[in-house]
């Protein structure tokens, strides 16, 4: 009998009522929402599967990474970057900013809490979020795991036969270990292009696969951010006209990329980004290396062989290593149960700017395909909406009917 009572106590301790929203993910999106909620006087609990904030930036990015856009486009709500930071902060400066941001707003996530499932209980009108340690309960859940939660690993015929290492860019750090080696980079988005450039600068022999069409545009035009110019022009002109201007200037500055094996999509860069999330490659020196032959552009891979790869154009080359610059995907479908708000790819079915709010206390942040700028917009909207409901609930309930976790538990 006594053992049964002890078991009941253990189960009760693991079932925790949260007086405020449960935020899943302690990346920039989750931290931004927590800060905006705190500004409204609303507590929250942030659950994070890793042991740090901004784990994608801290653990899964290469050393040379910098913000692709000027810092004023990448600020989180309520706190700008330090004035002494450069126009394009490095990954380490961004991590420092994130840590200062969390400290400033006294945001202490619950680390090493992997959400195994989350679902809405219609009978009690609450969300039940289960991790390996606890069952968290709240009227609200904020999905902040974002568009880039898990690396995409393609299944290319022959991968299991290759004699050398095959890694995803999520574990690539520097070209230092690839000096004088022949490396195949599969994927020509921003990560693939920048890794190829990094390899080149470490005297590796870099080949990049450009299977799909991609826009390459200068990071800056006339001394100003290309993105900033596009956003300014878009206030006055249609997107298609803005895209024509960007492509005209890009061709003037970079030449016709088709001549170097990089074919442009028919849809313009800004229109394509807003419609599909496919970001144009911002040139920071890659194209010059491609033109000089230091980075070789290859067509699609037909198969991987023991010593290298065969390509769709009939060529076959030997390589010492293969790096998969094949991007990331959402992991929402693996843990959010019985929810029709997300599609099969883990993205909100409702497009920006209305995709931040679902039904029954469900919110999303970091799924706008508009980077950190979109995150700020979502965070403000979520905090404002929850604040309205919070005030109503607090007028009807005592604030003492909750359990707050000690962060040392």
TrEMBL record:
Gene3D superfamilies for this protein: FAD/NAD(P)-binding domain
User: Single Gene Ontology BP term?
Assistant: auxin biosynthetic process
Which class of enzymes does this protein belong to?
oxidoreductase
SUPFAM superfamilies in alphabetical order: FAD/NAD(P)-binding domain (SSF51905), NAD(P)-binding Rossmann-fold domains (SSF51735)
Cofactor(s) needed, names only, are: FAD
Please write the reaction equations for the catalytic activity of this protein. Answer: indole-3-pyruvate + NADPH + O2 + H(+) = (indol-3-yl)acetate + CO2 + NADP(+) + H2O
Taken from the UniProt entry, a GO cellular component term is:
endoplasmic reticulum membrane
Specify the pathway.
Plant hormone metabolism; auxin biosynthesis
Keywords, in A-Z order: Auxin biosynthesis, FAD, Flavoprotein, Monooxygenase, NADP, Oxidoreductase, Pyruvate
Q: What is its EC number?
A: 1.-.-.-
Q: Which Pfam families match?
A: FMO-like (PF00743)
The answer to whether the entry has keyword Transferase is no
GO MF entry, a single one: flavin adenine dinucleotide binding
Family, similarity comment: Belongs to the FMO family.
Q: What is this protein called?
A: Flavin-containing monooxygenase
């Amino acid at each position: 009998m006594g053992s049964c009572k002890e078991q009941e106590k253990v189960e009760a301790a693991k079932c925790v009522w949260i007086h405020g929203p449960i935020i899943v993910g302690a990346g920039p999106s989750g931290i931004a929402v927590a800060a905006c909620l705190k500004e409204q006087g609303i507590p929250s609990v942030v659950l994070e599967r890793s042991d740090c904030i901004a784990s994608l930036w801290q653990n899964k990015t290469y050393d040379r990474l910098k913000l692709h856009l000027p810092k004023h486009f990448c600020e989180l709500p309520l706190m700008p970057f330090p004035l002494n930071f450069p126009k394009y902060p490095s990954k380490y400066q961004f991590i420092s900013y994130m840590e200062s941001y969390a400290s400033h707003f006294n945001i202490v996530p619950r680390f090493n809490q992997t959400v195994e499932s989350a679902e809405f209980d219609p009978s009690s009108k609450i969300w039940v979020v289960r991790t390996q340690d606890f069952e968290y309960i709240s009227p609200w859940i904020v999905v902040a795991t974002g568009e880039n939660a898990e690396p995409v690993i393609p299944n290319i015929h022959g991968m299991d036969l290759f004699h050398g290492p095959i890694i995803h860019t999520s574990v690539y750090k520097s070209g230092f270990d690839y000096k004088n080696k022949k490396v195949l980079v599969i994927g020509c988005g921003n990560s693939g292009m920048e890794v190829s450039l990094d390899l080149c600068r470490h005297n590796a022999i870099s080949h990049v696969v450009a299977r799909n069409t991609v826009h390459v545009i200068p990071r800056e035009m006339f001394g100003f951010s290309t993105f900033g110019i596009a956003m300014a022009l878009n206030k006055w002109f249609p997107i298609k006209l803005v895209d024509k201007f960007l492509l005209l200037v890009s061709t003037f500055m970079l030449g016709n990329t088709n001549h170097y094996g990089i074919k442009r999509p028919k849809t313009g860069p800004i229109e394509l980004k807003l419609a599909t999330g496919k970001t144009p490659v911002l040139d920071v020196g890659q194209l010059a290396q491609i033109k000089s032959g230091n980075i070789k552009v290859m067509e699609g891979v037909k198969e991987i062989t023991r010593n290298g790869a065969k390509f769709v154009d009939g060529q076959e080359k030997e390589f010492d290593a293969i790096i998969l610059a094949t991007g990331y995907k959402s992991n929402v479908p693996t843990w959010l149960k019985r929810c029709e708000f997300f599609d099969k790819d883990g993205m909100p079915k409702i497009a920006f700017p209305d995709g931040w709010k679902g039904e029954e206390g469900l919110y999303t942040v970091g799924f706008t395909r508009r980077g950190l700028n979109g995150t700020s917009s979502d965070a403000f909207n979520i905090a404002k909406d929850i604040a309205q409901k919070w005030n109503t609930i607090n007028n009807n309930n005592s604030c003492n009917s909750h359990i707050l976790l000690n962060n040392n538990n």
